[in-house]
Design goal:
The structure holds two protein chains of two kinds. By secondary structure, chain A is mainly α. Helices cover 75% and strands 1% of the residues of chain A. Chain A is extended and about 145 Å long. Chain B is an alpha/beta fold. In chain B, helix 3 packs across helix 4, helix 4 crosses helix 6 and helix 6 packs parallel to helix 7. Chain B is globular. The termini of chain B are far apart. The chains are: A mainly alpha, B alpha/beta. At the A-B interface, helix 21 and helix 22 of A face helix 2, helix 3 and helix 6 of B. The structure holds adenosine-5'-diphosphate and magnesium ion (MG). Magnesium ion binds next to helix 1 of chain B.
Chain lengths: 626, 272
């Protein structure tokens, strides 16, 4: 038979050219899929290992009594806030009411300081002369001292003496001070009458406030003492327990190392290993005994704090001259009840604390997902709570979508249905160009330009108080930049969706006497709605996964938003899931709890993005059979 | 309503006696490229009220273009331009500066070659034209929907599923729904651009029956490439060739005894 239809070309490793080409392209696709699976696997492996360690950590937190002290700290911190508010109010009021008097007193003190510094030698000469009762010497020394005072008062700078300008507009008083200074006697050290009077007036005027302040400041003394005592005890317990846990491993390592050593080194290593005592069970029960004993003292301290605080607050003056003080005191009075409720609840929890009650595994998981704090590198205890990061991401995304969605949909409708060809050719590439801006550049812009301008604009008179920006870097700023980043995504996909609406619908609508706008709102948008929705979702996916901009611009403060501020919470700095990973990952030790916590945050983020994308895909697929 | 005249409900519409010209086209030339080339050239014809007028001619001769000039659908093409002549409908020059295309289209409905109901319910499709005019009263809409569906012979088939999607109907039903949608706004004139070309013979027959009935209430202009259809449904026929009107007369004359050779060749199937 003749050789027809035979395969041409050489075979390599038993495969012909076609198979190799096919293998090459197939291999590329395969690698992508394998890499995706590896990433998922690795992410989950590290993330899921967080839970057992976290559970163990919480267990130790409870057993060592740190949990108990944690409650106590909460109470003490809450109380401390009242003290600091009171102090602020006190000084605000003081300043408002006795500006001049304070000016007199402070300026006098400052003048005396100058006089005593500069005239120390002359004063000594005068004192010696008086001691020796030598009339001539006395006269001479007094004369010299007068001249010194005259020179000094003539040359002294008013600005450095009355540094807060409290005597502005009281030139006669200032003159009076200088005059009094000129007759000052360094031996007698007498305070001039009008200065003494000013001091007296302040003292009397502030008397009741001072008393209230003292009462409030003294209310928590016992609580604070107890706090520092117990903090020290429990921190030590936790440390020892930690050491105990690693003791066995250390001992084994030393013994293993010793077998490879010789002579003295070996003896030293063996000795060291010998010194390590392995306790089968760390004696938590024994160690936390002092806490059990402190429970009664704790109850009493809290009771005392409650009553004294109430007394102190009741004594706070009602008539105030300073608005700031009035505001602060209103806050104190409003917050009082809630604080006391919290204290009661927290005290109850503290009293219920038992070192050997197990922490449920589910509880430890919930502590991560619903925890309201994320505290790391703490000398006390690290807390890994997802909520502040999650809410941060959500708040920023909402802001971004709020601006990006109407903008992109509007632009898409305009370009697709209303614009002339020339406008289309201008607008479309411009919007798509936004995508080419590197996010680091946007972040830079956000810090240097947008942040400052937004802050300035927010000070305008028509902006309501709660929207005024206090921190240049905040969620709103980041949200705006992310909106910009989301616009091209949403715009392009929206435009596609609108493009998929058959022209025939437009014609039919127009032929029925509808205007272009009616056609858009009543036919085109409803028809494309699922495509638009998918576009918005993919925009959300883009926004929630964005890292660089939020890291630079969001302000990176880890805290739950202050819901009481309403929309004002947009103006607060915040932190995000992406930001925290980028920020903390470089500096955590591999395999630590912190490291795994970050992985878990990454996994949560991944799941969110994935579900957003899958939903969008589904919607788009459904679009096919309108 | 008076049988010998087509009075139409629109308030500002003058009543025009049957057979009086309702559309007058005078020396119309039309271009898709700002006048460089004329797609339609020097066309003059008068379309009588209350009758069915058919446009026939080989593909690409400009039948659809002329039809779309009548309700100014060509406004959608940026470079479209009427180069000479004018079109008067009900005595009004429709390209006059103060004529609003939207208002015009409320009086001149259009049914397209490919049925194109909106992806909405049957009810909303029919109500659409009224809704965009700001009519939202349920009773008015209910009545208009029922009346229009009755007239387009669709009511009995869909009355139990008015709120289901229009896209669930068969092709013929969808086209009748488009007709119902068009007549719901009570236009004086209905333009139809090859309304049966996407339908099977049975659905086509139903539409043709419908056209005969609608003729009582509307002036109808229909483009068709199907000669039998033109003979069956129309009273008068215009034959176009390469953008020019070759012959325009009673349908029976065009098909039985045409005066121009080209017409004869075309209707006897010798070209086209
Ligand atoms: N929107 C348009 N823009 C430019 N030229 C068009 C457009 N629509 C139709 N034409 C051209 O105008 C001529 C007439 O088309 P048309 O009126 O659709 O013919 P018919 O309906 O008789 O088949 C054709 O040559 C066609 O290519
Ligand atoms: Mg056509």
């Amino acid at each position: 038979m003749a050789k027809h239809f035979q395969r041409q070309g050489r075979r390599i490793l038993g495969l012909d050219k076609q198979s190799w080409i096919k293998g090459f392209f197939g291999g590329n696709a395969g690698i992508s899929i394998v890499v995706l699976f590896l990433i998922c696997f690795f992410l989950m492996l590290e993330a899921f290992r967080f839970f057992p360690s976290h559970h163990e950590g919480l267990q130790v937190y409870r057993k060592s009594g740190q949990e108990y002290v944690g409650h106590l700290m909460e109470q003490a911190d809450g109380y401390q806030e009242f003290v600091s508010f009171t102090n602020q109010a006190y000084f605000a009021e003081y300043d408002a009411r006795y500006t001049k008097e304070r000016g007199i007193k402070d300026s006098w003190d400052a003048l005396l300081g100058e006089i005593e510094d500069e005239g120390e030698d002359l004063a000594e000469v005068l004192e010696d002369a008086r001691d020796e009762e030598d009339e001539a010497a006395i006269a001479e020394a007094e004369g010299a001292y007068r001249t010194f005072l005259k020179d000094l008062t003539a040359s002294v700078s008013r600005q450095s003496i009355d540094s807060f300008g409290r005597l502005e507009g009281h030139d006669d008083t200032w003159e009076k001070l200088l005059l009094a200074a000129q007759t000052y006697d360094p031996v007698e050290e007498e305070t001039p009458d009008f200065v003494a009077e000013a001091i007296q007036v302040q003292k009397e005027g502030m008397h009741s406030f001072t008393e209230a302040k003292g009462e409030i400041a003294a209310a928590g003394t016992e609580l604070k003492d107890l706090r520092s005592k117990l903090v020290a005890i429990t921190a030590k317990i936790a440390e020892d327990a930690e050491a105990g846990q690693s003791a066995r491993a250390r001992k084994e390592a030393l013994l293993a190392g010793a077998t490879k050593m010789e002579g003295e080194d070996k003896a030293a290593a063996l000795e060291e290993a010998e010194k390590i005592v392995i306790q089968d069970e760390f004696p938590f029960g024994e160690r936390v005994q002092p806490l059990e004993e402190a429970k009664e003292a704790h109850r009493q301290a809290v009771a005392k704090m409650r009553t004294k605080l109430a007394v102190g607050i009741a004594k706070l003056p009602a008539q105030l001259e300073s608005d700031k003080a009035a505001q602060l005191i209103a806050q104190i009075k409003n917050g009082q009840e809630r604080f006391l409720d919290n204290v009661d609840r927290s005290l109850e929890k503290a009293q219920d604390w038992e070192f050997d009650k197990d922490v449920g595994f589910f509880e430890s998981v919930a502590k991560f997902f619903f925890g309201r704090d994320w505290i790391t590198n703490s000398s006390w205890t690290n807390v890994y709570g997802l909520l502040p990061l999650l809410t941060g991401s959500v708040v920023i995304s909402c802001i971004a979508l709020f601006f990006a969605v109407p903008l992109s949909i509007g632009a898409a409708i305009y370009v697709n249905r209303l614009a002339t060809l020339r406008e289309q050719n201008l607008i479309k590439p411009s919007i798509e160009m936004i995508q080419a801006i590197p996010s680091i550049v946007l972040g830079f812009f956000g810090i240097m330009v947008l942040g400052q301008h937004l802050q300035d604009w927010s000070q305008a008179a028509w902006v309501p108080e709660f929207l005024q920006i206090k921190d240049r870097l905040n969620a709103f700023n980041a949200g705006l930049l992310l909106a910009l980043m989301a616009v091209p995504t949403i715009f392009t996909l929206c435009e596609d969706a609108l493009n998929n609406v058959p022209r025939a619908y437009t014609e039919a609508s127009l032929a029925l006497g509808a205007s272009k706008l009616q056609t858009v709102t009543r036919v085109i948008v409803p028809t494309a709605i699922s495509g638009i929705l998918a576009a918005v979702l993919l925009g959300l996916g883009r926004v929630i996964g964005e890292t660089m901009v939020v890291l630079l611009v969001a302000g990176n403060r880890i805290s739950m938003p202050d819901w009481g501020q309403g929309l004002g919470l947009m103006m607060q700095p915040t932190h995000t899931m992406t930001g925290i990973i980028a920020q903390e990952m470089p500096e955590v030790g591999e395999g630590t709890l912190h490291y795994r916590a970050l992985f878990l945050v990454g996994l949560v983020l991944f799941s969110i993005s994935l579900s957003i994308n899958i939903t969008a895909q589904r919607i788009i697929k459904r679009l096919g059979n309108v | 309503m008076n049988d010998s005249s087509v009075t139409l409900d629109s308030a500002d519409a003058p009543a025009i006696a049957v057979n009086e010209p309702i559309i007058s086209i005078d020396d119309l030339s039309f271009s898709y490229d700002l006048g460089k080339t004329n797609t339609l050239r020097n066309i003059s014809l008068e379309i009588p009220a209350g009758k069915v007028t058919a446009f026939i001619g080989p593909s690409g001769c400009g039948k659809s273009t002329l039809l779309r000039c009548l309700n100014r659908m060509n406004d959608l093409v940026d470079t479209a331009k009427v180069t000479t002549g004018k079109i008067s409908i009900l005595g009004q020059d429709i390209n006059a500066p103060d004529v609003e295309a939207i208002e015009l289209r409320k009086h001149i409905g259009m049914v397209f070659q490919k049925y194109n109901p909106f992806p909405k319910s049957i009810y909303e499709n029919v109500a659409y034209g009224l809704r965009v005019q700001g009519i939202n009263s349920k009773s008015v809409l209910d009545q208009a929907v029922e009346e229009s569906l009755q007239k387009s012979a669709l009511w009995s088939e869909v009355k139990d599923r008015l709120n289901t999607s229009a896209l669930g109907l068969s092709g013929g039903q969808q086209q009748r729904l488009c007709i119902a949608r068009t007549i719901a706004v009570k236009p004086q004139i209905v333009l139809m651009d090859e309304p049966c070309s996407a339908l099977d013979p049975i659905a086509t027959a139903r539409i043709e029956e419908l056209i005969a009935e609608l003729q009582q209430d509307f002036t109808i202009v229909i483009v068709t490439h199907n000669m039998q259809q033109a003979t069956r449904v129309s009273d008068r026929t215009a034959f176009f060739y390469l953008g020019e009107l070759i012959e325009y007369d009673e349908t029976s004359t065009i098909f039985g005894n045409p005066k121009v050779k080209q017409t004869e060749d075309y209707v006897s199937g010798r070209f086209g």
